[in-house]
Amino acid sequence: MATVYGQAVFEEYLRANSRSKELNDRARSLLPGGVTRTSVYFDPFPPYMERGSGCRIYDVDGNERIDFSNNYTSLILGHCPPEVVAAVEAQAARGSAFAAPSRHEVDLAGEITRRVPSVERIRFASSGTEAVMFALRAARAFTGRRKIAKAEGGFHGTSEYAMVSVSPDPARAGDQQAPASLAAAKGVPEGVTDDVVVFPFNNAAATEAIIRQHRDDLAAVIVEPVLGSSGMIPARREYLAALREVTARYGVVLIFDEIITLRLAMGGAQARYGVTPDMTVMGKIIGGGYPVAAFGGRAEIMALLDPEGGRAAIPQSGTYNGNPIGMVAGLATLRQLTPAAYDRLNGMGEELRGRLGAVFARRGVPAQVTGAGSLLNLHFTKVPVTDFRTMRTGDAERLRHVFFGLLNAGIFLAPRGMLCLSTAMDEEEMVALVRATERALEG
Ligand SMILES: Cc1ncc(COP(=O)(O)O)c(C=O)c1O
């Protein structure tokens, strides 16, 4: 772990996490890397968790940390909120899954369609990956076209068509105005990259030109209103408005991936931006901490999934789709999320971006904090971060150093510098984060 920023933070991490190290050593003979999810892994090993309560988590070494990851933005109420625990406990005693629908999926569907402007009809799934896969399939079936377009650096889960240009090597990624379509994993079939068109996020002129060029073959444009895994980079409003206009002009289905951004407002980012897509993919907060995702949109597109009177044009299976545990957890969560709750969370995010930015400015550290509402990301670069390539100008080594400094100081965040807030947090946690960041810059 050689670094120009000093070894002490790494040594301290090793010292304070010896039980996690033992567990990881054992786990490596069972699970590749000792984990079962790439995004929770970092070198040399991640801490293994024992429990969480409110905004705090506790690992097997007894370290207590404030959870600014919230399971990658999904735990908007923090860990074990009493209303969700009560709903899940009650449902667990009544049955966890049936090969039949229940009223709970109807209730959650009702709650979401009332909130999210684009969603006239909805279907549930168990992961965002699946929900994206079905949304893309629906767009293909609806338009009779085969290609999809996505942003460079956009993350939409791990199905074949989503695994393109997720985090491409800039040296291989070609022209900034017309990025290359590159497989994001070994094993993605070649034909997939032929059918996925990549556009530069936040660049309306270049994106419009790409959509125009492929308009006859293009079924869907899928985009995150805030580019998430590439560093919480908000789309400009004009950019989303331009995407809406050009996709409508050419009959291309516009899909917002709101798996993360649904936490920005009652109606998600689409309500905040005032831009309504044809379809929306959701996940994370709608399951209240349990594995629930969904896709929905215009009734005429979603009608392709209707099996009445024969075979559905798009059969959707999934053993745990709409399972009552996830449904009641999601419903109990959304009921807590009033306009006032969103305002408070978003206000705290705004405040933290300001305070952290002031720390960097005071110390003359070339860094910035991007994000929107309760979503934040640290970037160690002077270059304004507006898309994937500007994000990649960040000093990865400094980020890694600060990341370990924060872990040691009791702040849990994503290794890529992502932080997000839960309603379980307050001024105390904001102060703790700012102080820990100041210390991590010194370490
Ligand atoms: C924007 C976005 N889309 C899709 C996904 C995939 O969701 P899942 O991990 O539930 O498959 C994620 C997960 O982090 C995401 O952030």
Task: Please characterize this protein's 3D structure.
The chain has 443 residues and is an alpha/beta fold. 39% of the residues lie in helices and 15% in strands. A 7-stranded mixed β-sheet has the order 4-12-11-10-7-5-6, with helices on both faces. Strands 1-2-3-15 form a 4-stranded mixed β-sheet. Strand 1 (49-53) and strand 2 (56-59) form a beta hairpin. Helix 4 runs antiparallel to helix 12 (324-336) and helix 8 packs parallel to helix 9 (237-250). The longest helix has 25 residues, at 339-363.
Can you describe this structure in just a few lines?
The chain is an alpha/beta fold and 443 residues long. It has 16 helices and 16 strands. Helices cover 39% and strands 15% of the residues.
Helices and strands, with pairings:
Elements: H1 8-16, H2 18-27, E1 49-53, E2 56-59, E3 64-67, H3 70-73, H4 82-92, H5 103-115, E4 121-125, H6 128-143, E5 147-151, H7 190-195, E6 196-199, H8 204-213, E7 218-223, E8 226-227, E9 233-234, H9 237-250, E10 253-257, H10 268-273, E11 279-282, E12 293-297, H11 299-302, H12 324-336, H13 339-363, E13 368-372, E14 375-379, H14 388-391, H15 396-408, E15 411-412, E16 418-420, H16 427-442
Parallel strand pairs: 3-15, 5-6, 5-7, 7-10, 10-11
Antiparallel strand pairs: 1-2, 2-3, 4-12, 8-9, 11-12, 13-14, 14-16
Helix pairs in contact: 1-15, 4-12, 5-12, 8-9, 13-16, 15-16
The chain binds pyridoxal-5'-phosphate.
Pyridoxal-5'-phosphate (PLP) binds at residues 72, 127-129, 132, 155-157, 224, 228, 257, 259-260, 283, 293.
